[in-house]
């Protein structure tokens, strides 16, 4: 059965298990007997705060939200994984995820949108983070490789290799400090850093499934692009674990659900997204449901 907000009802004990993750089993049981009152979307110390980019916001998925004003233009969906996780635990979420965000948006304004970490406070008990892809030029790499594929040649230029190497090194250098700052702002929170879903299968699967129409890359670039995805995943994993955050390895957990798979099996879209998804190279509704399940499982259910 497809997971939706209405089907992800809070299970008995779900809130208690979240409290146990944050405060320890004994303290959590004593402190939390029932869900606390829901916080409003503008409350700086909401119980659950979601930080992220378009992979988190649900860009291109129904229903796109235009309020509150602090998330206007962010491409947030009412069906994104922060909403699903919040529904499971029976709490409100202050979802600050925004399309186009880099890690600079943690502490800086992104156009008219305030710093994402401004939502954090001592009452926050859960923070989920999905960020980093825009820091390393993922969209530039994707566009360049699609253009190269259309011309039937490789995108593995020295310029793109330099971009990848430099940007990954920069991300590795500052991301641990970013996470440490998040922990300082929300000292009582469990922090869950979520990796990116797989966007490509192996070359053999890409060939066998006839996927060149949905992922029209040059065949010789498939392994190179997969290697880039693994390097980004490892960079985020290392930073998260160095700061004691829970890392959700969505890249490897989503194997077999890439855009070459049939509708209903794939969690990520390619160049021809299937309705109701409208965004290329972004998670679909099944992908957000999978993300929510991964996070809930990582927190103990």
The largest beta-sheet arranges its strands as: 2-1-3-4-5
Largest sheet: 5 strands, parallel
The fraction of residues in strands falls at 5-15%
- What is the H/E string? HHEHHEEHHEHHEHH
Round the mean pLDDT to the nearest integer and report it.
89
Oligomeric state of this protein: single chain
Q: Helicity range of the residues?
A: 25-40%
What's the gyration radius in Å?
Answer: 19 Å
Q: What's the tally of helices?
A: 10
Structure description:
The protein has 301 residues and is an alpha/beta fold. It has a 5-stranded parallel beta sheet, sandwiched between helices. α1 crosses α2.
Structure in a nutshell:
With 301 residues, the chain is α/β, with parallel strands linked by helices.
Topology of helices and strands:
Blueprint: H1 14-23, H2 25-31, E1 48-52, H3 54-57, H4 81-89, E2 93-95, E3 126-130, H5 138-150, H6 158-185, E4 190-194, H7 203-208, H8 222-242, E5 246-248, H9 250-253, H10 285-298
Parallel strand pairs: 1-2, 1-3, 3-4, 4-5
Helix pairs in contact: 1-2, 4-10, 6-8
């Amino acid at each position: 059965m497809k997971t939706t907000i209405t089907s992800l009802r809070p299970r008995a004990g779900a809130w208690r298990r979240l409290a146990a993750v944050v405060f320890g089993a004994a303290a959590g049981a004593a402190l939390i007997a029932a869900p606390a009152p829901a916080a409003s979307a503008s409350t700086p110390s909401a119980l659950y705060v979601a930080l992220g980019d378009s992979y988190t916001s649900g860009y291109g998925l129904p229903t796109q939200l235009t309020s509150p004003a602090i998330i206007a233009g962010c491409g947030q969906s009412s069906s994104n994984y922060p909403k699903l996780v919040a529904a499971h635990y029976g709490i409100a979420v202050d979802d600050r995820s925004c399309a186009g965000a880099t890690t600079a948006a943690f502490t800086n304004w992104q156009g008219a949108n305030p710093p994402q970490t401004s939502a954090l406070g001592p009452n926050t008990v859960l923070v989920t983070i999905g960020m980093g892809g825009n820091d390393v030029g993922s969209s530039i790499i994707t566009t360049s490789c699609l253009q190269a594929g259309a011309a039937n040649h490789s995108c593995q230029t020295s310029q793109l290799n330099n971009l990848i190497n430099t940007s990954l090194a920069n991300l590795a250098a500052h991301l641990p400090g970013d996470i440490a700052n998040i922990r300082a702002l929300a000292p009582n929170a469990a922090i869950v850093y979520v990796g990116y879903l797989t966007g490509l299968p192996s070359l053999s699967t890409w060939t066998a499934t006839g996927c060149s129409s949905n992922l029209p890359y040059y065949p010789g670039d498939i392994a190179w692009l997969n290697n880039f995805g693994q390097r980004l995943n490892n960079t985020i994993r290392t930073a998260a674990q160095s700061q004691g955050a829970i890392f959700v390895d969505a890249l490897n957990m989503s194997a077999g659900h890439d855009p070459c798979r049939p509708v209903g099996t794939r969690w990520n879209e390619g160049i021809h997204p299937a309705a109701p998804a409208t965004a290329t190279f972004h998670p679909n509704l099944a992908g957000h449901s999978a993300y929510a399940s991964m996070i809930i499982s990582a927190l103990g259910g």
